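The following record pairs a protein chain with its ligand, S-adenosylmethionine.
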Amino acid sequence: MPLSDMHGRPLGSLRLSVTDRCNLRCHYCMPEDEYLWLPREDVLTFEEISRLADLFGELGVDRLRLTGGEPLLRRDLPSLIAALAEKPWVRDLALTTNGVLLADAVGDLKRAGLGRLTVSLDTLQPERFKQLTRFDALDDVLAGIDAARSAGFSDLKLDTVVTRGANDDELVLLVDYARSVQAEIRFIEYMDVGGATAWRPDLVVSRREMLERLSDRFGQIEAIDETSTAPAARFRLPDGLTFGIISSTTQPFCRTCDRARLTADGILLLCLYAQHGTDLRRPLRAGASRETLLNLVRAVWAGRADRGAEERLGVRERGAYIPVTVLRRDAHLEMHTRGG
Ligand code: SAM
């Protein structure tokens, strides 16, 4: 019997955060000056990640995504990728990166067996990149994207978080850029999750508004009719170019969510809005049997009833989800810890 949760959702994909550290300070994710980091000794070894991943594989997961923090900061990452890529149950192995370190790493990632890459890219303007991320690294990211194409990552995706007044004037330019590098771009609505302490409703550019602006420039946009558990709704421009919109804020898609998340220190989270998770590291390190761990994960998924983003829709006077004073006490509530 396939494993389903309380809303009949199957467990299908796992996002593995390999580090909570990041080499950028994006305004919607890590806007504060100081952070509480996970204790180093709590961070799972590659062998521990691999053992925990196998439990999810047994319960129906066939898609893995490595994330962070910035996953390319994790030393020797290709050896983890190689170990995951050879698992027979892994059908799709992907990685989300900010691209800063990608140019030098991409050959090793490909050789290790990484299947797909998503690069976050919020602007094409160097000064603006610096302002939005606090680092002067746009050229490195663009070089990383070029290197990914040259290394043979053909199914390349670009993710752009759109925030009003920050980068919403670049939608058309970013679509044109994606076309030029043969990538598919996905525009993400600004979410009020974890570290987004400056979130305000008026800063969200909705899917509807994005589509209006893009059709003003490109003409009639066709919605692609497909059944998928992917978060992005996909669209086609008159010239055939496709792009996606992840409308987690204005049109959430909790009912198709098949994602589990594992933080770098082994906490299992089911929803980006979850306030609590289940610690898998402690039982693993205490020597729990495979059967015990399997039952634990099975019970957690079977009891899953969250619809975090949909519930947020009903909140009046909506502001940042977690107050910064609370974030300062619990790193697990941060987006850079749970992996986005
Ligand atoms: N460092 C990698 C990167 O930059 O892609 C991976 C980690 S990052 C936390 C994963 C994703 O979370 C990115 O695509 C980022 O854009 C998204 N994200 C973080 N905070 C967000 C927010 N407040 N609203 C929407 N997306 C957000």
